[in-house]
Design goal:
Two copies of one chain form a homodimer. Chain A is an alpha+beta fold. Chain A is about 30% helix and about 40% strand.
């Protein structure tokens, strides 16, 4: 369970992986393993949230990090890079975009 | 504050709006007003969460709906369509993708 709160000040990375629909479940599995074994243990990791598109053409990670420095450290961590090669072997393309969460609305707001 | 929980069974729509960087704040404002005045009051609305990219080229809504039927009803609601025209006048492009949230990881998971 993950909380989205504009006051938390996290860096948000929404990474949209394009994938052949018949490989979407494989990609989800490899991304989950990568998080469990390596990336989820790194300093500054807050959350990873994996989504599969209804048409199965995309698997998207909504990730929260404590800072851009922590995110950069993950990207240059050798064990993470090794794991991300496995992701790259299944996905056709990755489109990460860095964001700041600015405003949330729930029911009745 | 929004909760991401794979067991909630919501439909997730991640809508990436491309925008001229100097219009990102305007777009955020219009999207917020649209949610406050119209879309956020519709049946089946769960949450809208507005993000501005670090490079200001994208404003992205991570939205939760109770069902695809509720989402379809919003898209064909005349008042929502009127509001969304204002969004379309500022954004260069909208790329909505429908998802199912499958797995979340927090620290130590």
């Amino acid at each position: 369970m993950t909380i989205l709160d504009a006051d938390a000040g996290y860096v948000v990375v929404i990474n949209t992986f394009s994938v052949d629909p018949d490989k979407a479940e494989d990609l989800l599995k490899v991304l989950s393993e990568t998080t469990e074994q390596t990336i989820g243990k790194l300093p500054g990791f807050v959350s990873a949230n994996f989504h599969v598109a209804k048409d199965r053409k995309y698997v998207t990670n909504y990730a929260q990090w404590s800072s851009e420095a922590a995110l950069d450290a993950m990207m240059s961590d050798p064990a993470s890079q090794e794991q991300l090669k496995k992701v790259g072997a299944i996905a056709n393309r990755a489109d990460p975009i860095l964001y700041e969460l600015r405003k949330t609305y729930g029911p009745g707001e």
